[in-house]
Amino acid sequence: MKMSQMYIPTLKETPADAEVISHQLMLRAGLMRKLSSGIYTYLPLGYRVIRKFEDIVREELNKAGAQELLLPALQPAELWEESGRFQNYGPELMRLKDRHGRDFCLGPTHEEVITDLVRDEVRSYKELPLNLYQIQSKYRDEIRPRFGVLRGREFIMKDAYSFDIDEDGLQESYQKMYDAYCNIYSRCGLEYRPVEADTGAIGGSDSHEFMVLADAGEDIVVYCEDCNYAANLELAKSKSDTIEIDEELKELEVIDTPAITTIEELVAELDIPAEKMIKAVLYQGKDEIILALVRGDYQVNDIKLGNLLDIVNLELINDDAYEGLDTVKGFTGPVNLGDVRIIADELVMEVVNGVAGANQTDKHHINVNPQRDFKVAEVADIREVKEGEKCIHCDGHLSLTPGIEVGQVFKLGTKYSEPLGATFLDENGKSKPMVMGCYGIGITRTVAAAIEQNYDEDGIVWPKALAPFLVEILVLGKNNEVSEKAEQIYNQLTSEGIDVLLDDRKERAGVKFNDADLIGCPIRITIGGRSLKEGALEVKLRKTGEELKVEIDQYLSQIKELIAKLD
């Protein structure tokens, strides 16, 4: 492709509203433009990258036995009401009415639609297993779209759905897709980790997220340095050593703690370690108030607690509820709190002579002892893990790093097939619900994540598999001989099946060099009057910055060799 004929509107300055590197560079390198908050137009250069990634996804899914189709983005509310998600999905679901007043939504995902299709078509166990996928735009009304396409309201996603006769079949389908995802992200040259994850609004049992490790990630990946254990912080567990404390139980007391509402302030004021503090957090349960307790050096893990209570979006109580509980915000504690259900983390039960809020302004209890001073309804792991804790599978230590979720696989089981009536007849003629899995990949999000992992101060540094062009040729000067040689090399490389961008614009050399670094093609060939006289081409590798002199007569074999060595 010739740059003089291609729409690549690069920018010198970074747009003010672009917060993260991928957002900045996708705008500056002319990959996309903003239409509205969280909604983007993909320009020719950006769409080439998207298509390259889509091709990799298709190849690996097809090898895994999945078949591509295309489902409607506009979905009738009746389907979502059958599954129970039309109201439960929350405000992210974009709802609308047609001219007849019928309710519809723009699909954030397609479990209902695919299940409706299969329930009307598949009748026998002989037609299973079945795995269907699509690549399509999805819509979610994010409360705060940000970070470019990392959190948008419209985005391109690959979603696949498997249908099996039993759990063993689901496990086989799940493993095939898990392996396909590993192949996809390995082929893209990305540093990633599959991690145990929460199923969220999709539901089901087991799930893994695929995380690209990058500083801009909104998620935290917890992984063991010595084994393969990895999990999202939402679900990560750690091994806690039982601590036997030889300390006599002291009498419960109330002390004055004026204007002290945080653990850090208590530690400084009382000279008592955070490990002896009992942090209390009030949540609204389904039909009761929940008091969650963790040790002072930990945070409550809302996802773990929500899963324990079977509540997808667990929320804190509102401020008005404190009066009804006869407690005070900032000074809540478990002693004599009243009619609440107390759930304590395992480590809280080991606290001896601890400190907790006294449910009165500017007052705390000291010498608090679980079970003696308050009763616990349930003990469970409801804490967030911390850096350096022990792995639950070995004696290795856990590390935490930011990650960008680019894909997720779920075991749905019969969550959708039962309410929607997707059944089949087994070999004995008995009707059974199909056992399902679903598998998503954020296409546009992966492109952004790749940039977050591959850039420098000058621009994008594309990995080989995702680069819009493998080679960019810069033509310097107005010499006809130079232009003709550049055109010859461009045509020859193109005829060899190599993606080439020819910068034949009538621009200054500095502009061309800056744009080349910004766009980030792996190999740059510079042709000018001086190099042509010397019978050599100037070749630069974008990733390493290495500069080479390549004889014109031997350039083709050497460029091919360089391409073969690219990551």
What characteristics describe this protein?
567 residues, 5-stranded mixed sheet, 28% strand, 31 strands, Rossmann fold, globular, alpha+beta, aminoacyl-tRNA deacylase activity, aa-tRNA-synth_II/BPL/LPL, 9-stranded mixed sheet, YbaK protein, EC 6.1.1.15
The outline comes out as: globular
CATH superfamily of the largest domain: Bira Bifunctional Protein, Domain 2
> Architecture of the largest domain, CATH level 2?
2-Layer Sandwich
Structural class: alpha+beta
User: Which band does the percent of strand residues land in?
Assistant: 25-35%
Might you state the CATH topology name of the largest domain?
A: BirA Bifunctional Protein, domain 2
Number of helices: 15
- What is the mean pLDDT? 94
Q: Oligomeric form of this entry?
A: single chain
The radius of gyration is 29 Å
- Count the strands? 31
Q: Cα distance, first to last residue?
A: 23 Å
Helical amount: 25-40%
What is the number of domains?
A: 3
The level 1 CATH classification of the largest domain is: Alpha Beta
Low-pLDDT segments, ≥5 res: none
Largest sheet: 9 strands, mixed
